[in-house]
Amino acid sequence: MGRKLIICDTLYQIMLAIQMKETLFRDDMVDIWISDHSMGASTVAERIKKFGEFHDTRYIETKGIVYSRGIMTKLHNLIKYGNGLDLNEEWMDYEEVIFHGISIFVYGLYISYMQKKRNVEWSLFEEGIFSYGDDCITGKSVKFLDFMCHVHHKKTIQESIKQYYCVFPELYKKFGFFETVRVPDFRSNYDHIRELLTKIFGIANNTHIEQKYIYFATSSDVDGHPYGETQVVIKLIELLGRENIIIKKHPRDCRDIYNDNRINVMESTGIPWEIVQMCSDTKSKVFVTVDSGAFLGISAMIDDDTEGFFIFPLFTGKRSKVPYYHDRDKKIELIVSLLHETGKCMNIRIVNSIDYIKC
Asked: Do 235 and 285 belong to one domain?
């Protein structure tokens, strides 16, 4: 029985960590550290602790460290965490540390183990199906710590990563280069994991969504690369009928523009969509998005054949000229194609006209 640590920065990661504990690590001693990066994370951490899902559950405040602003603050954090974390001895006894994304906080933990010369495996795990291959994108602070490791003839954290935990290894191999470990999808323990997740995230097992069409908004209009998504949503309203569509806003979108236009907006509950879909009857629903991966991954994980549409081909102007969106669109096309080849998500399509959506 090994002792493992899983560090989670998002609610999706918490959900996947629970599945890993219930399947791959059933006989291991597993601790979980849940950061303050997501709304409602502290409440989820308390529930996990209450139900005793993990050997030890800790809520850690690292958002201000990872997303610090100001040169002096960044420099202070770089010096502080570049010298390792001040940890209790019990936290230096892990055989494997699993995380998603290399942050200055995780690097500080890595340096602590390196200083103590402790043998530990460093592993990554996924953050949704569209995260495959994007796990080692780092900022300047992490790149500086990489440089310092090389100066001292030490391996960087990326060079020490042994494996990558994901639900679809066959897809990951198209984008990434780490050895993979398959996380069993929710079909393997569907009733049990659904019941457990509903308790931990506080959602009813028979959630009802009245509207037929569910639109998954992105953060494009609030994150610096707007391309007119909100205007397209308004056009969809005209096509589908105001009473027939509801918007699932992106967590970072704090605008009232949808409400101001009398558009139905899904209540922000801090519950991952994946769990909402597991607890809802979506057979008669239609999912629509520009490029959100929320419904694609869970549909593949539970063999849900709900109809869904990606409409990014509609945007041929400003959006298509942004390299990030161009690369993301190509990735979506490949993933959808690969899923279709395996017989999954056959009702999810990429379309170049909103006329395909009305059915």
From this structure: yes
